[in-house]
């Protein structure tokens, strides 16, 4: 996707109103987002396909499932300086998401010590840690224990101390400690003690920074971690910064070897810094083997780890395997379908699945009269259902469907066919599409039971352009607009419904998108 900053609106119109026949770029605007523009400037996003939010049926998602041409509210977390909530495990940031407890973490032996691995200590634990840290620094300051660089040099003396670690050497005899290097894009970094202390000055102001951590910090910096990220790691799990750089490199190298992307390492460390403590032989390999046993393709293992890194803190035998047995024996998911379910929602492995399943099963049974088989189908198609809050997620959407005239039996048909409706925004998605269905398409609510996917198609990129195009060609029926014309691909739509070339439709859609964008921009 490319972004163009255009200073002249008329110039934009001239560029986009007459695309060439060889290739077309379709405008994709953030219509549902609050976007602020500087006077005289605005941003236009260009995409080579129908819509970044439309998921085409011939593509696959990051977890391997076939993607249908549906609209979705879930966005990728790509912000460079993103912060992670204490409960975050890669799930979408909707406020109705999971509110259940997690299974108990496992104890591992790390560097000869027995450590109980856990997810972040939570806001309360972080607050206590910050208070302790501030109190510690204040006490040291009063006692005169925070010393200057010159005092540090005198204290160390010329004892000729030499330390080795992954190409790092320290020479105190010359009063400068040169850290050897890490390869970064083929280059070499030689960092002196003074420059390192200057580099981590902000970090040292926030935490009790030990110079022994410098080699590890330098190494982790190659994955894009900054001072703010190290502070988050420190507050989540301080011992993770005390790991020998050789051990850390061995463990991260293994994760990279099983498919974790370089760009995902930072996200993993911020969510689960304890992963630096888990040994390859005693932990990482056994958990990867467990995922493979679920018939998950090796090409998807890295993506699952990036989405739910906390799974390494749970015992395979005492936690993960019992969860799998519960899904098969109690929920009723077929063993051959289990790998697909995990790929759709890796967090299902680290939930208290008994609580999640029972509460939602009882709710849907009571609220809609849904039989067990229908609820199992919902979970198989959209296992994120087990993460959504009942009060803030499921119930408001069910009540909305009731408010537009649907009976419980109709709602059940829609949810069984397209469970992801429960993940769509009410204000930005469901309500606008309903109003367009009634007011513009002259259709009725009961048509949604036959074409529930209407609710997941993009209003700006699919529904409105196709409707307006057929109207412009005088091929739209006088009665209810056929929702079946919204389902097929652009090529099939042009052949079967419009009877015209794809290029002509794409050009029309571009002009329509630009017009709609201009209206919103003028407001």
UniProtKB/TrEMBL annotation:
Pfam families: mTERF
Source taxon at top rank: Eukaryota
UniProt entry tagged with the keyword Cytoplasm: no
Compositional bias of kind Basic and acidic residues: 121-134
Biased amino acid composition, Acidic residues: 72-90
Keyword Transcription set for record: yes
Keywords of this entry: Transcription, Transcription regulation, Transcription termination, Transit peptide
InterPro entries (alphabetical): MTERF (IPR003690), MTERF_sf (IPR038538)
Disordered, as annotated region: 60-90, 110-144, 156-178
Family: Belongs to the mTERF family.
Protein name from the UniProt record: Transcription termination factor MTERF9, chloroplastic
């Amino acid at each position: 996707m490319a972004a163009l900053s255009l200073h002249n609106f008329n110039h934009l119109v001239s560029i986009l109103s007459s695309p060439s026949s060889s290739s077309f770029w379709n405008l994709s605007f953030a219509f549902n987002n609050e976007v602020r523009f500087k006077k005289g400037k605005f941003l236009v996003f260009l995409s080579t396909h129908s819509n970044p939010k439309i998921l085409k049926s011939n593509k696959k998602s990051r977890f391997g499932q076939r993607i249908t041409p549906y609209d979705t509210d879930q966005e990728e977390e790509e912000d460079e300086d993103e912060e992670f909530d204490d409960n975050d495990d890669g799930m979408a940031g909707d406020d109705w998401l999971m509110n259940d407890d997690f299974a108990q973490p496992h104890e591992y032996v790390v560097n000869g010590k027995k450590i109980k691995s856990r997810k972040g200590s939570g806001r309360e634990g972080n607050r206590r840690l910050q208070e302790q840290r501030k109190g510690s620094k204040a006490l040291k300051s009063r006692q005169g224990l925070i010393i200057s660089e010159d005092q540090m040099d005198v204290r160390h003396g010329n004892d000729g101390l030499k330390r080795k670690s992954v190409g790092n050497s320290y020479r105190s005899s010359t009063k400068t400690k040169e850290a050897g290097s890490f390869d970064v894009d083929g280059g070499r970094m030689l960092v002196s003690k003074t420059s390192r202390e200057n580099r981590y000055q902000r970090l040292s102001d926030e935490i009790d920074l030990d110079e022994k951590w410098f080699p590890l910090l330098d190494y982790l910096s190659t994955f894009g971690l900054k001072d703010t990220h190290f502070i988050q790691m420190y507050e989540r799990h301080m011992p993770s910064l005390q790991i020998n750089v050789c051990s850390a490199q061995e463990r991260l190298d293994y994760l990279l070897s099983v498919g974790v992307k370089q760009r995902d390492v930072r996200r993993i460390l911020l969510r689960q810094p304890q992963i630096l403590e888990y040994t390859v032989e005693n932990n990482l390999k056994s958990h990867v083997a467990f995922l493979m046993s679920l018939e998950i393709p090796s090409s998807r293992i890295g993506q699952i780890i990036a989405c739910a890194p906390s799974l390494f803190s749970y015992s395979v035998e005492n936690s993960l395997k019992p969860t799998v047995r519960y899904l098969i024996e109690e929920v009723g998911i077929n063993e051959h379908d289990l790998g697909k379910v995990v790929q759709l929602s890796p967090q299902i492995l680290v939930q208290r699945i008994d609580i999640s399943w029972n509460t939602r099963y009882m709710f849907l049974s009571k609220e809609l009269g849904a039989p067990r088989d229908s609820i199992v189908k919902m979970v198989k198609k959209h296992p994120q259902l087990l993460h959504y809050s009942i009060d803030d997620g499921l119930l408001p959407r069910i009540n909305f469907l009731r408010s537009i005239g649907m009976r419980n039996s109709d709602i059940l048909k829609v949810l069984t066919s397209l469970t992801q409706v429960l993940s769509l925004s009410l204000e930005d998605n469901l309500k606008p599409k309903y109003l367009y269905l009634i007011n513009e398409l002259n259709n009725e609510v009961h048509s949604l039971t036959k074409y529930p996917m209407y609710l997941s198609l993009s209003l700006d990129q699919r529904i409105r352009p196709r409707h307006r195009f057929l109207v412009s060609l005088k091929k739209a029926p006088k009665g209810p607009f056929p929702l079946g014309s919204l389902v097929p691909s652009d090529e099939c739509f042009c052949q079967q419904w419009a009877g015209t070339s794809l290029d002509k439709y794409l050009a029309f859609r571009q002009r329509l998108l630009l017009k709609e964008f201009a209206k919103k921009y003028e407001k």
